[in-house]
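Why do we care about 3D structure at all? Because function follows from shape, and shape follows, mostly, from sequence. That is the central idea of this module. The next example makes it concrete: a single protein chain, its amino acid sequence, and then its structure expressed as tokens.
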Amino acid sequence: MRLIRIAILVLLVISGVYYLLDEYKLLPDGTVEQLTQTKQKDSKLETKEIPKAQSAMPYTGDIFQWIGKEAEKLTESFGKPLRKDLSAYGYEWWIYTDGQENYIQFGIDDNAIKTLYAAGEGVSLAPIHIGQDYASVKKQVSFPREVTYSKDFSSYTFHLTDEERAARPLVKVTDNLFMQLYFDTFTDKLAGVRVLTADILLLHRPYEMKYRGELPEKPVPEEKEQERIDRGMEQQIFHMTNIFRSQHGKEILEWDDTVRDVAYLHSKDMAEKNYFSHYGKDGNGLKERLASKEVMYMSAGENIAAQYPDAQAAMHGWLNSQGHREALLKNGYTHLGTGVYKSYYTQNFVKKQ
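And the structure:
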């Protein structure tokens, strides 16, 4: 299985003290064969009751009505998107945000809306809502350990750990529509929602899975396509960071191109040299990397992550980790640069005069 990794570094220039916190988190997003073998071992120890099936849920919020509609309907209702970002799964993200309170991106494939991700308390998700506490959501929505999907002669079963059910449970909305609920595990409140059709869910494979039949193949982007994917995720992380900071009463950060270059080069270096650390193979850390680009600052911090499937998953991973959360929501920072290279993510925060 892949090893999803996140780490944080806070650098205080005035005091000259470094704080380093590394957290390693093993999640079931490796190959299906490995996942199946692991689950077979774990299933012998499972004693809790597992729901056998899930019925369609009565979701009436505006957000659900968009799935399946033509992309042109978005421009009729919301105008042109802020950006159109290519995803690693072949569909295109249309981004809408006010930069502070509301954020939503629609996944377009073959001119139809197949998935979306949303954060912000203005998003309509009836009968639930962003900011709602875990216990009350659970009263309205079942969080099973197994979620199933069948099509023709193929069947698929997603297995969720207790940790996954606490942080990002999977809900079956209709026979062909699913929802991932992203909870802030420090406040136990709903922080974001992803809605996706079954075929998109099978491409993402965000949970351990057993299946009978065929699996769709994830696209392999060409070099220029990968660059476009990475640049899009950098901006997505920037906007989501400000949405989360705004929700917690923190200052909105400004984008910094030079700081972005510092973050990007570190992500690229980690990927190409096969390591995961705030310090490069040459021993240089954030202080040296910022100095090499002549970035003037009073204090700085860094979050890194690896092997997450996309920007949204990486952001919620940081939000739910103590040290990374502290950097994400720290008072005093003024600027942010985010660098993504394939499945490596770096956030560099700085405080300027």
